[in-house]
């Protein structure tokens, strides 16, 4: 009878150890899944940022190409910085939106 109790106790002990190992493995798998999900999220964010940076780079390369053209530089300076040619006068006309604002304030 003592052998049966000892065998039963050993089998319970082995089952408990097996259960502990299984739980440890499940915990490790759960951590790996969480890490994988976080890495996928980071990867998606990085790809999105890369796409934005590539688009910005294309715009900057295009702007660089345009700025190498003297006619474009002159046109850009005249429109954005109000440069004029010799003897040319620049007149500022109010925007239509400015007129509407002034009328609504009366």
UniProtKB/TrEMBL annotation:
GO biological process: cell division
Pfam families found in the cross-reference section: DivIC (PF04977)
Stretches that traverse the bilayer: none
Keywords noted in UniProt: Cell cycle, Cell division, Coiled coil
Coiled coil: 36-63
InterPro entries the UniProt entry points to: DivIC, FtsL/DivIC
Highest taxon in the source lineage: Bacteria
Protein's name according to its UniProt entry: Putative cell division protein FtsL
Lineage per the UniProt record: Bacteria, Bacillati, Bacillota, Erysipelotrichia, Erysipelotrichales
